[in-house]
Structure formats: C-alpha cells, structure tokens
Amino acid sequence: MPRTADTLPSLRELLTTAVEAVGGTERPGQVTMAEAVHKSIRTGEHLAVQAGTGTGKSLAYLVPAVRHAIETGRTVVVSTATIALQRQLVDRDLPRLAKALKASIGREPTFAILKGRRNYLCLHRLDTGAPEEPDDGGLFDPFAVSALGRHVKRLFEWSSETETGDRDELVPGVTDQAWRQVSVSAKECLGKDKCPFGTDCFAELARAEAGRADLVVTNHALLAIDALQGYQVLPEHDVVIIDEAHELVDRVTSVATAELTAGMVSAAVKRCGRQIAEDIVDRLEEASEGIKEIFDDLPQGRLDDLPRALQGVLTVTRDAAHSCITALGPDRSSQDVESTTARRQAIALLEEIHDTSVRVLEAFDADTGQRRDVVWLSSDMIGGNPRPPALRVAPLGVAGLLRERLFGECTTILTSATLTLGGSFDALARQWGLPVEQRPAQKAEGTATDIAPPADNDAPHWSGIDVGSPFTHEKSGILYVARHLPPPGRDGLQPAFFDELEGLVNAAGGRTLGLFSSMRAARQAADELRERLDFPILCQGEDSTSLLVSKFAEDEATCLFGTLSLWQGVDVPGSSLQLVVVDRIPFPRPDDPLASARQRAVEARGGNGFLTVAATHAALLLAQGAGRLLRSNDDKGVVAILDSRLATARYGGFLRASLPPFWTTYDQSVVRGALARLNS
Prior knowledge:
By secondary structure, this protein is α/β, with parallel strands linked by helices.
C-alpha cells in the first residue's frame, strides 16, 4: 500500500540512513543531487545533473526514486547504457539500499531488471529449432560452423540450469549467431496465450516481476523500443532516470537504424517455404538476386542520391515482400502451433524487409536539408572477413522522438559524469530535444531549481545542475597539451609522436593508458614502444578487454593501449594508472556516413555543422577519456593530449572547457618531472 508523504521519513533522513548502511560518508554533491532529483520528481520539471566520479550519484537518485515509488505506488524506471552499471545496481546497490530502508519505510522496496525479449532464452525455439538465418558470411567458414554447434550445445545444457534465461548470466558468453538460434524477437513471439511454453516463458516472467516492482532497471535500447513501438514494453511509470545519459542519443539512434541485405531476403524466401504459392515466392527470390547484384556494384559509403538501379530493385523488393505478407494472410486462431510459428517467423522478416525498403525509398523524397534519414552502403568485418554489403538507414536526429515520446510522457532525470560540453548543457540538450538558451551550467550551491525554466511554454521545462566532484582536479591532475608537436596527419603516427610518448611513459614508469582514435594507431604505437621500452605493453584485441584491463590494474609497470571501449570502460583506481595519453582529438571520421550527414544538415539550416556535430562528439569522448585518470580521492596523475590543435585551433577552447578543471601546462619538462616524482 502507498504511504502518504507525511508518514514517510524525509529525503534527507532516508539518504543518511542509506549512506550509513553502505559504509560511506555523505558528500555535499550527493546531497545536492538527491534534493534536486526529489524536487524534479515532485514538480515534473525535467532535470539534467552532471555528477563527477566519486559523487555517489547512484544513491543520490535511487533514494528519492524509492521514496516516490513507496509514496505513490508507481514504478520508477532506471535506464543505463552498460551491462556493468546494470549489474552494479541490481547486484550491489539496490539490495543494500532495500535492506537499509526497510525499517524506515515499513517494508523492503522491490526491484527488478528488464531487457528486450531477444535477451532471454526462448523455450519454444529451443524445442522447435531456429528458422533459416540471414547469411553473414560466417557459414562459409568450417571453423565458424563447428564453433556455432558447440555454442548451441552449451545453450541447451544451460537451459536446464538457468532460472532467468538472461543471456548476460551465461559466462563465458556465446556469439550473436548462436544466441539467435535460441531467442526470438517480439514480432516472432507467439504470445503467452498461444505458446505451449507460455507459462514458463523467461521473458514473460521477467515482465511480470517488473510489473510488481517499485524500481525497474533497464537499458537505453529497451527505453527506445518502448518509445518507438506502438505497444507498451515497460511497466506503467511516471518517472524515468537515465544514468550514463551521454550515451542516450547513440543508443536510441542504433535502435532506430534499419538494414537490408540480400541474405535477409533469401532467408525470408526459405521461411515462406510452402506456406504460399510458388510464383509469389519466386518474385521475392528474384528480388534477393537483384539486391546482391546491385549492392556488389555500388560503391560503399553515404548515398546522397538514389541510383536508378537501386530504386528499381528496392521497389521490386518492397512489392514482393508485400505480396508475400498478403498471401500469408491474417493470423488465424484455428492454426496449430507449428503453422502459427512458421507464419510468425516469415511475417517478422518480411515486414522488416518491406518497411526498410519503403523507408530507404522515402528518404530521398525531400531536399537535402529537409531529409530525416541518412542512407549508406557498408560491409562490416567479422573475424577478419568482410560481410556481404548491407544497406543501412538511420535517423539524422532523435530529438523529436525523445521530446515527444520521452519528455512528453514522464518526468525525466538525466545524469552522467559528462553532460556539460564547453561549460554548458546546451550541446546535449539540443540532441535530446530540450530547448536551450545558451546558458552556462549552474554550479551547485542550492538545487537545480536555481535555474529558471525556458520561457517557451510549449517546450518541455527543464533545468540543469553540475554538482561537481569530490576530487580536487587542479591539485590532483595535470592536463598536458603537446603544443610543439606537428598536427596529426592521415598517414599514421609520426616519429615525433613516438618520441613524445616514449618520454612520457618512461617518466611515469609504465602506468599508462593509451587512448587512440583507431586500432591501427593503437597497434602501431604498441609495436613501436615495445621496441623502445622494457615495460609490458598490452594492446586491445590481443585478449578479451576485461582480461587486459585486469592485467593492467594488477601490474603497476604495465601499459594498456586501445581504442573506443577503453575511452569509457576503464575503472582502475590507484597507482597502476597515472598517465592517460590521447593520440589525437577524436573527431568522427570524415567518411562516417551518419556524422557527415548530420553535419551537412545543420549547415543546410544555417548552423555550424562542425561545432554542432564533430566538435560535440570529440568533446564528449575527450571528457570521458580524461575521466579515466581520477577514480578515487588519492589518485594523482597526468592527462596528456598529443594533438597540438587542442592549443592552437579556434575550437580548442570549447574542447578544453569540456574537460575536468586540471592544472594545464604546455611544458614538456614540467610534465615529465611531475610524472617522475609520482613514480619515485
């Protein structure tokens, strides 16, 4: 039963109880954030909170969320970008919090984790077998086929042991291709009432548990699916808290991206089988052959215009898929389970093919500056081998979707250690669909309500606050910009770069995390420094990332070099990490189809596409990378940016303002001396 506000302890009392129970100490930033979140939930005004590492932001939003759930009887949704944070919340933070608050609120708060249906083992598919899968090129490799068989066998054995059917609980994991053999999408699912395994369905059991919980932990992808789909996925809720909010736009964009391949159409032909007339299926098979021929002939990259040959084959594919869907007819309750399953599997893939074809054809209807989608052709690599070409279509922006389906539906709190870029929330607020007024980020003195909401009454009202960090960045860290180095070129790392890197790593005694803009650069640097230095140097890709990070943390002399996932995924407090090196400002690649199209769209509307897209992308990654240095109060060290443009280019000020407030120097001898003293 819900409790009224006056019978519940105050937020401050609950926060104090929670902090004491977990053995921590209350921090000013944590208290300020908790009060701001509490205020946002009460008033319905959306809130963006930047909370630096060590603030204790999880408790700062979980405590007011629990209080709201207990008071109103309504579920609160907490969304994260990474599995690691999900596991931290569900396995550590929430169990301890629930026990700590039980006496104060009269019962133990309940919580559950909910993921998309594809993340759960499907007992029916396990029993009946998977349909024909789109070919990704791996089936031509006999080693891949035997590995697939081993993985599927493991999954069968695991199915009799697991209580949740949650893929993330299977350690070690299996390939995506193996998992697809035992899972289904929402469209392929028969539904609880029709499926012979409906009462034991892992996905349905997870949804039922989530529906009864005070707090539901999910991920940004499922949050996006809930917003995009015409049916409800998450339990009824009036508040959503988005942690790792700097990842929200990319995760939503990924969910809203569709692709089309010849293999998909070929697989749809096989799924149709004998369910419909042969002449109708033949038209779809001809479309598959046409797609393969056209895709092989087209150059890869962004498509600014729709080639006539591609338009023709997409039109044929669209019409053939529609004919097959019509021939399969409506779902009939009289059909047996086997027939219903075959029909659902065929329809799911046919609808995907049809809808993607329509979307690509319509993407070119508007003028360049007014288009909503970007289309490109690409071929990914799997195990060093290229996949067959895929045609992809993605939204140029998701601001409208988020504004209508997220901020328009419930009170939303967004938080991360990196939300203010260039000293303001504006860059990310634009991407989220929130109105901006070119105001600087408010430094926490009271609560987020210190900032007046925008004057636009039709727009979502929101406020932003930076509650700071418990770390004294200017005393604990140095930002070194190698202003004397030549700007990075296109031909790989230059000799001067290796000389600079060698001197820094030597002074630090190893203890270096190297963050590179590409795997090519990371490998090049690792190979070169192994020739020059005696310190162990690990490079991403030589083993699993988690194992490499563990080895790096265990040995102070070890260095770890890598690319994107290390910019955001390394948490190594202590003396094993005292130097973070960034090879170059991480702008998106000039040939990145989505980033380049977004930049062009901004410019078509009279804006600064470079600052809005490329510089914002770089600022966010730089802030995340620099955040690897200080992970505890005792940490000290250097962030070294070996790209002189950070000091010399006009946009350098915006990028530097996005970084933590380290003491800054351009003097090589000063920074080497500081590292040597730390190492002594």
